[in-house]
Amino acid sequence: MADKQISLPAKLINGGIAGLIGVTCVFPIDLAKTRLQNQQNGQRMYTSMSDCLIKTIRSEGYFGMYRGAAVNLTLVTPEKAIKLAANDFFRHQLSKDGQKLTLLKEMLAGCGAGTCQVIVTTPMEMLKIQLQDAGRIAAQRKILAAQGGTQASVEAPAAPRPTATQLTRELLRSRGIAGLYKGLGATLLRDVPFSIVYFPLFANLNQLGRPASEEKSPFYVSFLAGCVAGSAAAVAVNPCDVVKTRLQSLQRGVHEDTYSGFLDCARKILRHEGPSAFLKGAYCRALVIAPLFGIAQVVYFLGIAESLLGLLQGPQA
Ligand SMILES: *[C@@H]1O[C@H](CO)[C@@H](O)[C@H](O)[C@H]1NC(C)=O
């Protein structure tokens, strides 16, 4: 996907624009994913993605589906910047005298970039998850209170709605930097294997549609290959994503398990909810990732940043 001739600022602008459009289009599905992954057996509020979205609109309004989107909108560009810069750095280190990278080295560079990106991704996910899941917990309390008789109803005031900034301050105050980096290990365990699945799959699928061995694949082939490879990789690492979401959620619903770490969480999920629980939200995640990758490729393909930069520089002689 990465073309050598495109400058880093142009890549950055492309990445930022793609990120902003992407978040706007698929954030509600991302919210449904978080809520579906967090619900444990017993107190299930939502039966499916559409059920979750309908209930969210009913109780929280249309903007309720976008709770936490500000985190993504603000941080998606710095996140992309780190990833692109790291990817360029590793590719440069790995390439001998400007030759084309082998697939293995491409993968290595991708994994290295993924590892650096986690510096921004982890706190981002941490904040996003609290904001996305708050509505589910509030709704669950309300239902229990309406059924009457639980202690929860006694101390169930209107749920507080902290902003991302307030959450950050509170986390830093109570737990320091580590508070923002809860789930770092789980995030790495999700994102590094993601690259390991994505890169070879994309390369192979992309190859299938190449007319002659020397030519580049046509755009629609790369586009489809990106969407398919992205979704497949997302589903493959979904078990880690479920564990990550659970570990990063600070608030629990009524009667929900708490976890002390990655293994404890994986074990409890397996024991109390069965192996299929590791696929919770997988469908949503595939639906989030495919458009994100697709949109990014279209933005790159159209060269939106290059046109913008060209406009700034004025007509070329
Ligand atoms: C929001 O950002 C997180 C962290 O990078 C990412 O995993 C998630 O897919 C993003 N969601 C959307 C809808 O872009």
Explained architecture:
With 317 residues, the protein is mostly helical. The chain has one domain (8-313): Alpha/alpha barrel (Mitochondrial carrier fold), CATH 1.50.40.10. It is 73% helix and 0% strand. It contains 13 helices and no strands. The protein has helices at residues 8-38, 49-60, 69-94, 103-147, 151-154, 164-175, 177-180, 184-208, 219-236, 238-248, 262-273, 282-302, 304-313. Helix 4 packs across helix 8 and helix 10 (238-248) crosses helix 11 (262-273). The mean pLDDT is 89. The structure holds 2-acetamido-2-deoxy-beta-D-glucopyranose. 2-acetamido-2-deoxy-beta-D-glucopyranose binds next to helix 1, helix 3, helix 4 and helix 12. Keywords: Membrane, Mitochondrion, Mitochondrion inner membrane, Repeat, Transmembrane, Transmembrane helix, Transport. This is Mitochondrial glutamate carrier 1. It is found in: Mitochondrion inner membrane.
Number of helices: 13
Classified by CATH, the class is Mainly Alpha
Q: Oligomerization state of this entry?
A: single chain
The low-pLDDT segments are: none
Name the helicity range.
over 70%
Beta-strand portion reads under 5%
CATH topology: Mitochondrial carrier fold
Q: What is the residue-mean pLDDT, rounded to a whole number?
A: 89
CATH superfamily: Mitochondrial carrier domain
Coarse morphology = globular
| Distance N to C terminus | 30 Å
Q: Spell out the helices and strands N to C.
A: HHHHHHHHHHHHH
The total beta strand count reads 0
Bound molecules: 2-acetamido-2-deoxy-beta-D-glucopyranose
At CATH level 2, the architecture is Alpha/alpha barrel
Number of domains: 1
Largest sheet: none
Task: Give me the Rg, rounded.
Answer: 21 Å
Structural class assignment? mainly alpha
Protein name: Mitochondrial glutamate carrier 1
Transmembrane segments: 12-32
Subcellular location: Mitochondrion inner membrane
GO cellular component, one term: mitochondrial inner membrane
